[in-house]
Every structure is written in structure tokens, then in C-alpha cells.
Amino acid sequence: MKKLIIILGLIAAIIAVTLSTSRYSNYVMIPIVIAFISGLALVFLSKKEPSKTKPIQYIFLLVIMSLGLTIYKGVSKTIEVESTDQLNQQGEIDTDNPEKLLENRQIESKF
């Protein structure tokens, strides 16, 4: 039982780290939660039966790394303009009718 929880926790933590560095970082919370719960279960099981704590430390280390990467990506995400075609078309429309632009500016300057 304990080995199964260790394996599940390590696999979930590794998946969490890889997802947090990829473009699918929106789905990283599921493996983080699974790894965290399995880490907590290992902590409680190790209190009953003394055993090595290295797997528990590795699980929590990987969970902290993936949380840090996910938070960093969320904070530093830049807003990208998907399509500048509409902006270019708007510029072309404005330059096609220079008389209309002049009329609009003259109307604005009167006020």
C-alpha cells in the first residue's frame, strides 16, 4: 500500500512539473493535488510505521517546484495580440478617405 502511494505521488509530481513548464499549465492543478494528498498520506503512514522520508521530501519538493512555475507563468504571462489584420484594415480605411479625416478634425477643432 505504501509503495503504491509513493509511486502515485512521484508520478503525479513529475507530471505536475512537466505540465507547469508546458503550454498546458492550466491543467497542472489536478496532478499537484494528487501528489500533495499522496504526500500527506505518506506523512501519516510514516508516523505509524517508521520508514525512509526521502520519497516524501521528493514529492513535496516537486509539488513546490510545479506550484512556483505555475504561479510564475500566471504572473508573467504577456498579453499577445492574436491578429493585427483588423488594426491594419482600420488603418487602410482611415487612409483611403483623407477628406473625411480632415472634415472630422475640423469639426473636432471647432469645439
SSE layout and pairing:
Layout: H1 2-21, H2 29-48, H3 54-75, H4 85-96, H5 98-110
Helix pairs in contact: 1-2, 1-3, 2-3
Structural class: mainly alpha
The whole-angstrom Rg is 27 Å
Instruction: Please trace the helix and strand order, writing H or E for each element.
Output: HHHHH
Oligomeric status: single chain
* Major pleated sheet: none
Number of beta-strand segments: 0
The average pLDDT is: 81
The separation of the N and C termini measures 80 Å
Count of alpha and pi helical runs: 5
Report the principal-axis shape. rod-shaped
Q: Runs with pLDDT <50, length 5+?
A: none
Helix content: over 70%
Beta-strand fraction estimate: under 5%
Domains, number: 2
How would you briefly describe this protein structure?
This protein is mainly alpha-helical and 111 residues long. Helix content is 78%, strand content 0%.
Pick out its properties.
5 helices; 111 residues; 0% strand; 78% helix
Task: Give a structural overview.
This protein folds into two domains: 2-75; 81-111. 78% of the residues lie in helices and 0% in strands. It has five helices and no strands. The protein has helices spanning 2-21, 29-48, 54-75, 85-96, 98-110. Helix 1 runs antiparallel to helix 2. The longest helix is centred in the middle third of the chain and has 22 residues, at 54-75. The mean pLDDT is 81. Keywords: Membrane, Transmembrane, Transmembrane helix. This is FUSC family protein. It comes from Winogradskyella pacifica.
